[in-house]
Amino acid sequence: MSTENPENKPQVSDFVRQSESQNPDVSESTLYLVATPTGNLADITQRAISILKQVDLIAVEDTRHSQRLMTHYGIKTKLLAYHEHNEERITPKLLDTLHSGKSIALISDAGTPLISDPGYRLVTCAHDDDIKVVPVPGVCAAIAALSAVGLATDAFIFEGFPPAKSHARLRFFEQFADKKSTMIFYVSCHKILATLEDMQTVFGADRRVGFAREITKTFETIKRMKLVALIDWVESDANQRKGEIVLVVEGNLTVTKDDTQVDHYLSILLAELSVKQAVSLVIKLTGENKNDVYKRALELKP
Predict the structure, then answer these.
(1) Is 7 part of any domain?
(2) E-assigned strands of the chain?
(3) Within-domain flag for 16
(4) Which domain holds residue 290?
(5) What is the pTM (predicted TM-score) of this model?
(6) Using an 8 Å Cβ cutoff, are 35 and 113 in contact?
(7) 200-235 pLDDT, tens digit each
(8) Is 222 in contact with 253 (CB distance < 8 Å)?
(9) How many domains does the chain have?
(10) Among candidates 51, 98, 108, 99, which has minimal Cα distance to 75?
């Protein structure tokens, strides 16, 4: 077969090469979830900057807030407001844009998109429509706080913002009273004292809590102390009741664990299944920590 192109028509490969030279990091019909700085503008990856410059549209929570980042890095891509008040109306339009072959980056005001921020509806619909979704990792306030406060990191849960009203907040915290895992919460500065007091009611005065305020910003504050001391400190310093706050709560280390049920299940399952399969089933049945169950399975294995 001849490979000549007598009419000198553009080939598919020519368009691919041209597209790659113009947009080496961006694919058509792709939704990019781009993490942005929580404060310090230097906390953004080179890949994130490149993608924000190359996509056809950037969906942002607040165009005025995000414009500062765009100006700093010379990003001239069109911005479109996408937040909790308009996401039902805007989501179909963004999906149509993606289906047309355009690329979109979704960012939040700060940190990783969807972590207590809008975007879940769009990402879910994108998957339902077989649209490619690509994460561009970076800053996340919850993880930054967890890594810095000196509490256990082997098992943790993120629960976002507690309820605004004290009664609901107390009931909310009660479900975590016996949790052994470290817990991460976002807290409004206007609710910080009331939230800490409710935590003390449920978790006790001696429970250790990591306090991370204004992460990566000029007045960044990272502390870890018992709740009773933390309440006194926050109450005595008005500056600690300003800005963005993450609370990292120590798990309940006093909970005694009864291994009888775990041992019973393992002894039955290990007789028929591999360690991996037995551990997987026991975790589903009991909700116990994977590492603890695996260690116990190795001890009981015939």
Answers:
(1) no
(2) 30-34, 57-60, 79-81, 104-106, 132-136, 156-158, 182-187, 208-213, 221-226, 245-249
(3) no
(4) 260-300
(5) 0.76
(6) yes
(7) 999 999 999 999 999 999 999 999 999 999 999 999
(8) no
(9) 3
(10) 51
